[in-house]
Structure formats: structure tokens, C-alpha cells
Amino acid sequence: MLPVYETMEAIEEHLFRYEVQQATAQLPDLIDALASLAAGMSEAQLSRLNAILTSINEALASQDYVLMADILRFELRPLLQRTLS
User: Fold this and answer.
1) DSSP letter string over 11-73?
2) Rounded to whole angstroms, how far apart are CA atoms 41 and 6?
3) What is the pLDDT of residues 8-20, one digit of tens each?
4) Contact 46/31 with Cβ under 8 angstroms?
């Protein structure tokens, strides 16, 4: 499993257990991994990634941690799977 998937899974698990501090502490690692992957993405994929990151930021700002975990699992993960395959 790629480190980006491991990081996303760890964040998701923390969020589902309402361990918000631990989840948010891992966000910089996720952002770093995504920045590295972004170099190989098409313009359309980058646009989708930006929209997903905006949604994550909005969920975080409104303290909707379940939504944030869902976005990671059901939007970001599929995008990365398509991009990396």
C-alpha cells in the first residue's frame, strides 16, 4: 500500500473515532504526499483534486468530521486510484 493510502486510512480511522487532534496532525503528511503526486496529474485531475481539497477544508472548518472522512474515502481515494493506475 502506498504511503498516501496509509495516511488517508489513518486519518479516516481517527475521524470515525472522533480523535480529531490525531487526524488533523496527520493532514500535513497527506498534503505533502498529494503535492508529490500532483506533478503527474492531468489538468482535469488537478481540478478535481482542488475541488476535493476545498470540500475537505470546508468540512474541517464546519467541524463535520464524518463528512471529512467520507470525502477522503469516497472522493479522494477513487481519484487517486484512477490517477495511479
Assistant:
1) HHHHHHTT-HHHHHHTHHHHHHHHHHHHTT--HHHHHHHHHHHHHHHHHHHTT-HHHHHHHII
2) 20
3) 999 999 999 999 9
4) no
The alpha carbon of 25 is separated from its chain's Cα centroid by a whole number of angstroms, namely 13
**Residues 51-60: contacts with CB under 8 Å, at least 24 apart:** 52/76, 52/79, 60/24
Gap between the Cα atoms of 30 and 4, Å rounded: 6
Contact 18, 48 (CB under 8 A): no
**For residue 53, what is its C-alpha cell?**
481539497
Hey, is 6 helix, strand or coil? helix
Summarised one tens digit per residue, pLDDT across range 44-79 is 999 999 999 999 999 999 999 999 999 999 999 999
Amino acid identity for residue 7 in this structure: T
Number of other CB atoms surrounding residue 28 within 10 Å: 10
